[in-house]
Amino acid sequence: MSFRLLSFLCLVLAAPYGDALYIERRDNHYVKLPVVHSTNRQVFSKVYEDKREIASVPLARRADVAYYAKCLSKFKSTSFGQLDTGSFELWVNPNCATLQGTSDVKFCNAVGHYDPTSSSTSVELTTTKTLRYGIGGANIQYVVDAVGLDGTDALLQGVQFGVAIDTVDEFAGILGIGHGENVTIRYKNMIDQLADQGVTSTKAFSLALGSKSEQEGVIIFGGLDTSKFSGTLQTQPIIPAIAAPDGVPRYWIDMESLSITPPSGNTKQYPNTSMAVFLDSGATLTLLPTRLATAIAADFGANTTDPSGFYPVDCKFNDQPGTLNFAFAGVTIRVPYREVVREIQTAFGISCYLGISPSEDFVLLGDTMLRSAYAVFDQTNNAIHLAQYSNCGSNEKEITAQMDLGSIKGDCEAPDFRSANANSDPLSPGNGTGAGVSGSPDSSASAWGGFGLAYKWLMIWTAIYVTGFGTGFFF
C-alpha cells in the first residue's frame, strides 16, 4: 500500500562515465540529497504555471504533502524517481498512458524514460515480477546496469533493478530502501550496494523532512546532520519480522504511549497506547487503531469521518500551539497541531483534515508525525534512532561502524511549542500537484493490499543516474 517514503530518484543514462567532468570526488562516505516541498513555487514553477488548473482526482488521491529534491544531470536536465522506506526494490518507467488526472500525466511525463538498449553496460535479464500496490501496480523485467550518484565520483557497478513492462496508477518509478538481500529479496538492493561498494560505511541513512512552513529537508545516505535535531538520539530496536504485526521485516519499533497537550497546557494521556508502530515517511497519513483515532479526532472537534474516511477539522488548529506527543524509549516526539492538520485545495476552497486515519490492521506513523522527528534508519544495527526535529543549520557527519548513534547529540535547542506558527502554506487554488496516490510496493507480497486509497505518497527528489554509452536520456 502507500505506506512508503516515495521520493524521487533521479536516474539518467548519460555519456560514458569518464566524460562526466563535473563530478567531484567524495571526501566522506555519505551522500546528501536535499528535499523540497511540492508547494515551493520557486523550485516547481512549471507545475504551477496554469493557475486555473485543478487536478481532477478525488480527495483520497491527493498528494497534497509531497517532498522533492531538484537534481541536474550532465546535460542540465532535471530527472526524477521515487524513494520508499516501505518497500525494497528499484524499478523505473511508469506507463503515463494509464493515468487519469492532467497533473498526474504532467508529472509522469517529466519523469522520463529509461531504454536499456541505449546503455552499453546494461544487461537485460529474463526474470520478471509483479509488484502489487494498495492502488495499482507494476509488471517489471529486471536489468543490470551501472549506477552513479549525482554530484559525486561514486559509481555502483552491476546494480539490478526493474524496468516496467506495464504499470497501473503509477506516475513515477520507485526506489525501495527497506531491507534487501537475503531479508526480503534475493539480490542486493540500493542500500546493500551503497554499503558493499564503499559509498557508505554502513547500511544507514538519516531523514529530516522539514516542517510544512520550511518546505524543505534533507536525506543523507551513510550520514547524519546534528544541526537538524535537539537532544540526544535515542535508539529504538527494530522489531524482528517474526514478532512484527505483519510478519514482514520493515521499520517496526515500539511506541510507549501517546498523549495530547492542548493550548491550555494540560496534557491528556490516551489509555492503552503502548503498541508496535511502523515508521513510513512515504505515507502522508498516520494510521492508528479506530478507538484511538476517534478519541484524538474528538479532541480536534471531529465526531466522525467523511465519506472518504477523513476527519474534517477546523483550520483554526493551524494557528494553535497544541501538540500530539508520541513517546518512545528515552524520547518523546512532540508534533505541533499545524503539522498534523492537512490543508486540501478543492474547487470550493481550502478544507482542513486531521492527518490521522483509523485502521484496525496495523499502526503506521506517516509524515504527519515524522515531519517533527529526526530519524536514522540503521539496518546495520537493526535500530531506528530518534530525536525531536529542530533546524539550526548544517553539521554533517559520516556514520561509521564504530559510531554509537545512541550517544549523538543534536546542536539545536528544542522548538518552542508554546507559540503557534501559522506559516503552513496551503496549496493555492488550482496549483495542486495532482500527484496520484498509490500503495507501497510489497516485494514480499504480504498483506498491504487494499489500504492505499487514503494514504498518499510522500515524495523526495533524489539524484542518481544510470550511466552507459550512447545518447543521453533522462528521468
Automatic annotation (TrEMBL):
The entry's keywords: Signal
The UniProt record lists the keyword Signal: yes
One of the protein's GO biological processes: proteolysis
Ribosomal protein as UniProt keyword: no
Peptidase A1 domain span: 67-387
GO MF, any single term: aspartic-type endopeptidase activity
Annotated stretches, region: Disordered: 420-439
InterPro entries linked to this entry: Aspartic_peptidase_A1 (IPR001461), PEPTIDASE_A1 (IPR033121), Peptidase_aspartic_dom_sf (IPR021109)
Residues in the signal sequence: 1-20
Active site per the UniProt annotation: D84, D280
Pfam families recorded: Asp (PF00026)
Similarity annotation: Belongs to the peptidase A1 family.
Listed name of the protein: Peptidase A1 domain-containing protein
